[in-house]
Amino acid sequence: MDVSLRQLQVFRSVARHRSFSRAAEDLVISQPAVSAQIKSLEQVLGVPLFQRTGRGVELTQAGRQLLPYAERLLNLLDEALAAVHELRCAQRGQVRVAASTTAGIYVVPKALGAFHRAYPGVELSLDVLNRFAVHQRLLAGDADVAIMGLIEDPQDLEIAQFLPNELVVIASPRHHLARRHQIPLDEIAREPFLVREIGSGTRADMERIFAEAGLSPRVAMELRSNGAIKQAVAADLGVAVMPRDAIGLELETGRLIVLDVQGFPVRRWWSLVRRAGRQPSAAADALWNFLLQYRLQAR
């Protein structure tokens, strides 16, 4: 049957208004055009759809049977057009991303690169900050999406698991514990530890791990970047707890090793975070949904 969407649109309007003239006003076409569309549809279907009454027009039994199907088809069309419009809007725009230090350097760029290839018209900005600053950016509305580890106050935030964040104990390959297996946690706690500044998510995780075992690691030096810690560990200045994501190159080249310590590796998660209750832009929502799919492929 050669039934057009236009015929169904006209049919729905006449059925709603119970008037050919009011349907013509609704659709901004002439009344003869409405009559022609209905006549054509009735000819295709082989049944009358309306009958005239003193109050206008009423649906016939066939018309009443057709109406819910026409409604469903036209509503589905509206949904499809809206989806395409949203996709078109998401092809451009700006998205502000904030990430905690380790995630921002070692995890996020690859994910944003994949998004950029899919949405080349979207302009991305990335701020790499400590986790407190990332949190503040989100609450202040200065970041659309964030990727971070430890989240101590989830209030007013929407949070989704992103990628695993595996914490390991690293040392120089010359370290005296390098060939030991299942090193007790209390023994490793006596080694000189190189740590990030207070406020670092990695440091907070490390302190929590030892505190849960009733231990306090021996802090020998505080440094403000993972790069500086890796250099110091490689120079035999101590050991450190660090995300495995941050040491891939050093492990490949043999500059660092992962010690076999009881209770390690410790698995945490990088999280996707955005402000709850805030309507995101089409581009920001596209990034959020893209990253939710990306995590499934990257695991």
Secondary-structure map:
Blueprint: H1 5-17, H2 20-27, H3 31-45, E1 50-53, E2 56-59, H4 61-90, E3 93-100, H5 101-106, H6 108-118, E4 122-129, H7 131-140, E5 145-148, E6 157-171, H8 185-188, E7 192-196, H9 201-212, E8 218-223, H10 226-234, E9 240-243, H11 248-253, E10 257-258, E11 266-275, H12 282-298
Parallel strand pairs: 3-4, 3-5, 7-8
Antiparallel strand pairs: 1-2, 5-11, 6-9, 6-10, 6-11
Describe the protein in words.
The chain is α/β, with parallel strands linked by helices. 47% of the residues lie in helices and 23% in strands. It has twelve helices and eleven strands. It has helices spanning 5-17, 20-27, 31-45, 61-90, 101-106, 108-118, 131-140, 185-188, 201-212, 226-234, 248-253, 282-298, and strands at 50-53, 56-59, 93-100, 122-129, 145-148, 157-171, 192-196, 218-223, 240-243, 257-258, 266-275. The strands form three sheets. Strands 3, 4, 5, 6, 9, 10 and 11 form a seven-stranded mixed β-sheet that branches. A two-stranded antiparallel sheet has the order 1-2. A two-stranded parallel ribbon has the order 7-8. A hairpin with a 2-residue loop joins strand 1 (50-53) and strand 2. Helix 1 crosses helix 3, helix 1 (5-17) crosses helix 4 (61-90) and helix 4 packs across helix 12 (282-298). The longest helix has 30 residues, at 61-90. It is rod-shaped and about 100 Å long. The mean pLDDT is 91.
